[in-house]
Amino acid sequence: MKYLLFSGLLLCLTLPALAKQPAREAIHDIYYLQDQRSLGDERLFRHLHDARPEVALRAAIAFGNIQDTSQAVVEQLGAALLDAGPDVAKAIAFALGQLGPNRSVEQAIDRGLEKREEPGVRSELLESLGKIGGEASLREVAAEFKMMSDSLIDGGTALGIARFGLRGIKNREATAVIARLAHHEHPAVRSQAAYAFWRIGDPELLKEHGDTIIKLASDPAADVRMFAVNALARLEDSEKVTYALLACFMHKLT
Asked: How far apart are CA 178 and CA 190, in angstroms?
């Protein structure tokens, strides 16, 4: 009887470890494929659609690191994006942004934005769109913008516009969106807005919002002030830059 009880206890202790073993093996295979920059005869696709979140998440990250831009990869990531859990979907959104400018990738991100409502997923999708999207995508982001109560979505919008700006894609409407986000109640969003002003960097676009940028330069948050001063430097307006530097200095004294 004691032997049976001991055997039952041993089985209960070892079953969880046995159940986890296949997941560990799958993740090990994903690391191997990532190191080899290989899809492994579509094994990586199967890992991406694995029902175990830890496996699918690791596979999505691997796709972002491998950066295979083939149509098959874009289609698999786009399909998985629509059905995956939030954490996996965020990793897929990031991976799509690593694939470079590609109309098929833009379409996959657009479909994700149509279906996914989770703030974290939408934020990652908006930033990824800024990494790979064209002028039409920027116009769409600006046209559809609505100030949200969720700082993740608003911050993702600012970072997406900043990413467009880094690639030389910018317009008046998107810059006006950043000006609205500069008044956000959350300091993280104000920081992302100030960063976007800096990365837009076009004096003609920024000069319309010089007063807003000056206000950011005296923000309580140090990172907001830093990005704002960098943005003002793009204005080529020495008076405004001097004012901003004085505002930052006075803020340190108070």
From this structure: 9
